[in-house]
Amino acid sequence: MEKMQELEKWNQNVGKQFHQLGISKLWITSYGNSIASGFSMVDPIIPLLFRNVSLKKTMEEHEIELRQFHFARAQNNNEEHVLHWLLDNISEIEMNQMNRVDYGNYPSSMPSTPMTQKELNQYFPLTLEEPMGLQDIVTAKQSDFANIIIYNGATGSLIDNFTRKGKHKNLSGVTRDIKGLDGILRIIQDFNRERGTNVEVYLCGIPNVMGINVSEIVNIQLKKLSREFANVVYIEPVKEQLFRFQDGIKVDVHYSTNEYQELHIKIMKRIYEQYFSCKIKIEIDRMLYQQSQKAEFGDLALFEDYLEECFRKIKNQNIDLRLFQKDLLKYVLERYPYDYFYLPKKQLVKSIDKGKKI
Length: 358
Known about the structure:
13 helices
């Protein structure tokens, strides 16, 4: 009950903040693996976003129209496949059909209690009024609109090797999935730069099994990857208990019902803390990227006034401007040789550094 109340508090914080920012539409997409699908081998299976039961009502209270999308499944979800979902613009109907196979009474279903027909129809309908494709969602551009992706992944290839008797028994699967995830994040950031979208990705660490931090082998790579993109925010994982004492002892590396609630608390808290500063960082990245492209063709690059305006927006939201400037400078210097080379480097660094004095 305490977790439900804490989650409701962070839902309210996000709703209030978004209303103050003039946001009237919120799209949230759960994208990726079995955690993104809300899977459990022991507890009831409920798609991830539907586990935040008070979110829709809270957004309505703040006059925000909420749409939730699930582009995740419990199997066959290595990052190469997840990348193809984006490239192929897989539809909600197609995604729901695969989930019905994963969770229904099929030979290839996941090892869990099969969903009833009523549950399958509730969570994975095959008829929708306005079915969307994944790429359609990622490239949507509307006014007064927040577009957020909750990503859980980086486990598919590793698990496939063990469960499908692949020849790679070490952590090569993780390396394979990190490469695929890097491709997914590059495409989404490229859409932000080229099409003027503002998609934010909240990248969740893989579960911290029994709190022994063995997951850091993967999560340290996810943290590093998140810092390479203007629109990606890393979320620390939840401690996962592994053993379930229900009708004997059962083992499950997925989150329990309570642990999924803890994950949602972390998600909503990070959205509340990072949404606006991430949005401004996306806008600055897009501006610098486009100004560098113009300079490449001989046009004059202009960015100082724009940066100053962005810094004032940050300060007006009571966000620590020094910390934002420090993070931005680190990101810009990392990206400079590849994305902003035609901008004068010393002038750019000086313009960012001036943010301290606003």
